[in-house]
Write a structure and sequence with these properties.
single chain; mainly alpha; Glutathione S-transferase Yfyf (Class Pi), Chain A, domain 2; 6 helices; GST_C_Tau; Omega/Tau-like; GST C-terminal domain-containing protein
Amino acid sequence: MWVVYRTSGEEQEKAIEDTPEMLKVMEEDGLGRDNKFFGGDNIGIVDIAFGQIAQWLGVIEEVVGVKMLEAHKFPRLHAWIKNFKEAPVIKENLPDRDEMLVSFENIVNRVVFSVLDFTENALGILYMYKKSRK
């Protein structure tokens, strides 16, 4: 799923096509029909592991502009996220969403600018090489 947010072009399109199937498996096989959490009625280790997704996904979707976990497509996963975030032990310890948004935007900007710097340097080297060969 994270490939959707780290790539572009054909690779991103393929990941966008594959992700709903993965989410469907998580929803149907992981949560089942009546489970509030992955282990039943109580938060378990799988919920804790997937809890990062619950908190980061909305932030990443907002920054990148690609929505993957839509409520009408995955109602049980959406309900799980709501239940997970509302559990007192989780709610009291969730990081601030606005701070996460700023943090992720900074990460994206650093990656973009490092790629741009690399590209600019590579083009400069190529230009100097071609110029020296004339």
